[in-house]
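During the reporting period the student researcher (J.K.) took over the structure-prediction task from the postdoctoral fellow and processed the backlog of single-chain submissions. One of the processed entries is reproduced below for the supervisory committee.
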Amino acid sequence: MIRLFQRMAGLPAAARGALSLMAGVLVAIGLPPLGWWPLAFIGFPLFLVLLETAGRVNWRSGFGLGWAFGLGYFAVAFHWIGFAFFVDAETYLWMMPFMLGILSGGMAIYWGLAALLAKRWGGTVLQLALTFAACLAVAEWLRGQLFTGFPWAAPGLLVDGMGGLAQAASVIGMTGLTLLVVLWASLPYVFLAAERRGAKRAGVAILLLLPAIWGWGEMRLRGATDAMVPNVAIRIVQPNLPQEEKWREDNARQIFDDLEQMSSVPTPEQPLGIGGITHVFWPESAVPFLIDESPVAKAELKPLLGGRTALITGAVRVDRKGDGQEPDAHNSIIVFDGNAETVAHYDKWRLVPGGEFLPLAWLLEPLGFRQVVETPGSFVPGPGPRTVTLPGGLRAGLTVCYEAIFPQQLVDPANRPQVIVNVTNDGWFGRSTGPWQHLAQARLRAIEQGLPLVRAANTGISVVIDAYGRTLRMLPLMEKGVVDSSLPVALPPTLYGRVGDVWLIFLVVVALGCAFLVGKSRLSR
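J.K. obtained the following structure tokens:
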């Protein structure tokens, strides 16, 4: 190993950067839907070898290697975003390399800073592994908070393919899992590089946490309840409407007719069709018109809903202003009762940068950049998470699209819901990895909060997930159809649901404290 380190130390800076970028690519391939998480046990050790053999900490060694590592990771993890620019290629395709480059490179800055701090504080082999895991977890938390936040594809998402290990999200959340996954994946570096037995024994002790937590998760799943909420029968409608057809006004009549027909169709689970359904869910921006302002739509919905079935649909909603003033548009969820009367609405409050608003518009608009989603006015964020009581008394935490990727402030803790509802339109991204990653992150939210999740997606993947993250019903990507299901019961509030990321602080302190003690006792080389 010493010879390998010496060779890496002698490589030109460009070669070291390329290897670091490749290490990031390996880790990203482990994300859903492939789920090749063992590759992380190659990617992280390779990066740490490069980081350790770098020269004295400076922006070219520590930060530069970390930034290249992050760039490889995010370039692969975010590549699906490029599919959106092909929907209207004549208008938007030229923007794709700039947007993807800026996004991947910007997110990689967090990893560069984590590597810089780890290089400065890490010192020895075991110290470097502990310090980098702690610093990267903090960097990932900040990535989900700063500048509106974008925590997509955190390394903790690797647990989606690791069975019972994902249950730890109910205690430490996704960012806590990020720290543990990074630390575990770094241990081959400790075993191969550490010269002292004490460091290797400490690495074994850390590694033993992996099967222990995994086993606890499997036991939690074996004891899971299959209870359902009484008197609730749901239907999710997945129209599978191509994105290029979705906003054409001449398609409005056909789109609405299809949604109505699918909502009422008999199925083996519901031979009476909508007559046996209490709640119907349509996906994000289900129709290309303002459904809550359409007398025709309400008149047609009333006999469909029959006074008994509630409709929960994604829709664009507009707040009118005075004469001559541009209206405020909201990406919303509108709730209709059985008489097709609007009884509640929820306005999305986490807007998609570049999609629903353009960051630094004052700079980018003169250069020709535009937000991808065009609306009757400017999208305006709502006030934040809140629980809406649906007809029938069901309390729902409503979320729109990528709000489901945020572990923090997902539901109103003062009025805990019985279910998380997520309406989305992943039709922008075709058959890419994006919809699968989106689903995996939503599944973690269910585990974190101990709440079932109902997900209505335009082109898929529509699912019913229970409070343990188990998928009970699913309609695959790019299929047209409905999902009929009972609603799983909620669990008591999880530890993560009660205290949030306080556990992350604890884990970071423990990791850095252990790194300090390791340095004091000189367990590492």
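The committee noted the following: Residues 2-223+500-521 form one domain.
J.K. will present the remaining backlog at the next meeting.
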